[in-house]
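Folding follows sequence. Below is one example:
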Amino acid sequence: MFTYAMAGLGHLRVTDALVDSLPKGIPYELMGTSGALLTGFHRFISVNPFAKRISEAFQHGFLEDIFTKVYVGSLRRFTGDVYQKMLEVIENRADVDSVTVVATHFGLAHQIAAVKRKLERKTKREISIVVQVTDDTSMHVWCVRGADLTMVPSRQTKSELEKYAKSKGIKFNCEVSPYPTSPMLAREFPKGDGVRWLALAEKSNEPVNVMIPISGAAVGLSYLSRLITTMDGLSGRFRFWVVGKRTKQLLNFTSWIARLRWVQVVTGKNDREVVNLYEKTYRDNVIHLEVTKPSEQAFKALIPPSMIGGSVLLFAAPVGRQEYDNIKFLQRHGLVRSAEECGRKEEMAHFPRGILLPRDPEEAGRFVVSCLEKGYWERMTLGFEYSPESLLSGEINEKGTWLFWEKLKVLGLV
């Protein structure tokens, strides 16, 4: 059983990736929370400066301990709806004698863990809970009392969560596995579909396809507007693919940028449709650049440029602890560089997978165009390779979804 929450698109993207790589013959069910309240709250703390500062304050130190205790306590107390949903799904599946719950959001993970024993007694089925952490972050809410296994993207996060669990007397079984990226994006280009570097060549006149995924909370639209219009004003080669959910905020944004030379707006009526449309856009087109938040999308850096999802990643400024933590993960492996570092010739021997754009959107637009004209994006695409140390770390692999299921098979959880 896959459980997720629609607090942004990240949890759903990871769920879809794991569903798409599920070994054949294993029956499954999906259970998600109602997204309206969570998405509204997520947008509020992402957009409102005062709420953002308060939210970030409660992600560190003593305040994080207070938040975790209150939040987790309330989750584990109010479990009636979750219990009834789980009970209904399990009792309707007479063909299974055990259930593995794969949780990509800590909220439902805590609630299911709280009623796990009760469900086992009622249904006479063995229930296991596997938590997949959807950022490389050691935020304490990801430490779920009663979970059988927690999967994290790095050894550093494993160590930090284990230390916290020990301090709280929580039995905590944690494994490191490469982040589960979309299986479709982690495939080689089909023969005859072209290659990414040709349009990025220094003297090329080919169109450059730029993916602009809009977050579930539709944040950062002002930055994107100025960035896109700057790029379009300086070069006529860009084709922008804007993918997001059909909301008032997105419609206002797309109507404003519709005057650009070439914009394709792809919208879905709900989060699941948006995730599918995003992947379809990559499948049907060679995407060269992607401007995105360093949320779970940062882990597309694990996909080489030779593969469908291996576009050059252009990151907007991080928001929230988890996005800063993701950037630190990329920095440890040499997968991201700031725009300022791109001008240092001594750094040119090793190319990253992603760039942190300047915080000023017009400066960022000029930077993107300059790098295109100088062939820097081409060199990033052709000259990139993972370091031997990163490959040996067990944290870098585009086949994270398949490795996830292999780990669960070894442990007898599927």
About this structure: The chain has a mean pLDDT of 88. The chain has two domains: 2-181+398-410, 197-392. The first helix runs from residue 10 to 20. The first strand starts at residue 2 and ends at 4.
